Amino acid sequence: MEIMFDTSTDRGKVSGTELTDTANSSIVNTHGAKGGIFWLKAIVSSGDTVDVTIEGYDQIQGAWTALAAAVGGDRTYAFAQCTAGTTSDQLTVYPGLTGVNNQTISGVLPDIIRAVATVGGSSEDIDLTLGVDLIK
Fold first, then answer.
1. Contact 43, 37 (CB under 8 A)
2. Which residues pair with 132 in a beta bridge?
């Protein structure tokens, strides 16, 4: 399933005109899946960076929460920072895996998730494509 970012531009494209800009993805209902394999492709201009993290929706508080060790995994649910050039990366989340920063997380996915892309730098064109294969 492709995860699209909520921006005023083409799907999967994050445009930042300021030094930093943040874009939230579409909401994904995990339908009870315990984990997932997230796929990221980023094309980043020279001098720019992109950080992509996964958040879960706290239905009781009605707020988004960054998924980290204290929430239900053994480390932060995040890809390694993308810098200039083209990056293809994978992040796997599932209970019982041996955790490796920015690659594998021993944890679970909440019912509702989204991705957050934080852009650093001054370029106007950073292309992101993000998808997830949910694991029951």
1. no
2. 38
Q: Note whether 107 and 95 are within 8 A (CB).
A: yes
| Whether residue 111 has pLDDT greater than 50 | yes
Q: Is 46 left (phi over 0), alpha (psi -120 to 50) or beta?
A: beta
Task: Please report, for residues 55, 56, 65, 107, 111, the alpha-carbon distance to residue 62 in angstroms, rounded to integers and kept in the order given.
Answer: 13, 11, 10, 22, 13
Q: What does pTM read for this prediction? A: 0.84
Tokens coding 103? 């690659």
| Residue 100, CA distances (Å) to 29, 53, 82, 93, 107 in order | 25, 15, 17, 11, 12
Give the whole-angstrom CA distance, residue 8 versus residue 98: 39
